[in-house]
Design goal:
single chain; alpha+beta; Heat Shock Protein 90; five-stranded mixed beta sheet; two-stranded antiparallel ribbon; 7 strands; binds adenosine-5'-diphosphate; binds magnesium ion
Length: about 350
């Protein structure tokens, strides 16, 4: 008797395993579900019939058969309905990704239905939204870059034409032509630097150095300009050793000092503060200029973003300096941020990892 039961179990398991393997080969989820429903109903029925036949002859097999086929049909219909609804949602997701692939960045997938599919739809939509905003940013960048490139080119062309037409003497245009060419060169250089930051190919070696001499030499470079504009340059240095790429730190600091001096009126003060905290070193440049709003403090690190005053003053920076500074600082494992000062003016700070 036990031997018989064991063999029924073994045969059932064997049939089940073979059937499940067969199921996974079916081409669509709908078919797999339907076949699975059939299997789930037919396997128990097979046991009932087989044991009934083996143990005692059943008189009522027609009724059992009827109940069994009813149950099987219901299960198959349920599986078909569920399968169809899942398949339809997957189809909508597939259609959305096909639209996205063909360049329609506004394509979104449905986010309803069973949780797994809703999660999948949501993940797809997040991906699509971030691709869309990346493309928008790229487009704006190209537009801003071409605008800024066009201005000096137009001005160079106009001056050259004036010389060619004999409307102006060449020598009086040499300086402005040089200025515009220099501006063009600086812009291309900045764009190139940004591209390298984006590509993550800023390979620079990090050294453990004392920051004080480096910061001092940068500040010294601004002494003459500050004196000419009657701006006091203040230094508040503490001993600080950092692990950094000295040339890049210099570039960042020169940029912050240029900005601070540009925004500080006569009789103002620009202070450079160097200090160290536990595992990082901090450099701040404070000024007594017109200051910044909280919103500006965030936006000023965006590429090509310039404040109104900077925008109207033609010939000044392109709004790339702080974006590059951020890239350089972050590539060395530091942070950079700006904040308004309580006493007015702005403070822009960056950190670098302290030398061990
Ligand atoms: N110290 C500062 N005080 C006030 N505004 C500042 C200061 N530094 C930068 N900004 C604002 O941030 C903008 C972006 O600065 P930056 O990226 O260096 O570009 P750029 O110097 O070419 O204008 C500036 O146009 C200016 O409006
Ligand atoms: Mg600048």
């Amino acid at each position: 008797m036990t031997g018989f039961a064991i063999s029924v179990v073994a045969i059932t398991v064997a049939i089940g395993v073979v059937a499940i393997f067969g199921l996974t080969r079916l081409p669509t989820a709908r078919l797999q579900l339907t076949a699975f429903a059939l299997l789930a109903v037919l396997l128990p029925i097979w046991i009932v019939f087989f044991s009934g036949w083996a143990m005692f002859h059943m008189g009522d097999d027609v009724k059992i058969l009827a109940v069994a086929s009813g149950a099987a049909s219901a299960a198959v219909v349920a599986a078909l309905v569920i399968g169809t609804s899942i398949a339809r949602r997957i189809e909508r997701l597939r259609a959305a990704s096909a639209r996205l692939a063909s360049g329609d960045l506004s394509a979104r997938a449905p986010e309803d239905g069973p949780r797994e599919l809703a999660d999948l739809g949501r993940a797809f939509n997040e991906m699509a939204a971030s691709i869309e905003s990346l493309f928008d940013a790229r487009r704006e960048l190209v537009a801003a870059a071409s605008h800024d490139l066009r201005t000096p080119i137009a001005s160079i062309t106009a001056m050259l034409e004036a010389i060619e037409d004999g409307l102006a003497d060449g020598s009086e245009y040499i300086r402005p032509l040089q200025d515009q060419a220099r501006r063009l060169g600086a812009l291309v250089e900045d764009l190139f630097e940004l591209a390298r930051i984006d590509a993550g190919s800023l390979a620079h070696e990090l050294y453990e150095i004392s920051l004080e001499p480096l910061v001092e030499s940068c500040v010294l470079g601004f002494e003459a300009e500050a004196r000419a504009r009657n701006v006091t340059l203040e230094r508040r240095f503490e001993e600080a050793r950092a692990l950094c790429a000295p040339e890049q730190v210099e570039r960042v600091l020169l940029n912050l000092l240029t900005n601070a001096l540009r925004h500080t009126p006569a009789d103002g003060t620009v202070a450079v503060v160097l200090g160290s905290e536990r595992d990082e070193v901090r450099v701040s440049v404070e000024d007594t200029g017109e200051g910044i709003s909280d919103e500006t403090a965030h936006r000023m690190f965006d590429r090509f973003w310039r404040g109104d005053s900077a925008r109207s003053a033609d010939g000044r920076g392109a709004g790339l300096g702080l974006a590059i500074a951020r890239g350089l600082v972050e590539a060395q494992g530091g942070r950079i941020w700006a904040e308004p000062r309580e006493s007015g003016g702005a403070r822009v700070s960056f950190t670098l990892p302290a030398a061990s």
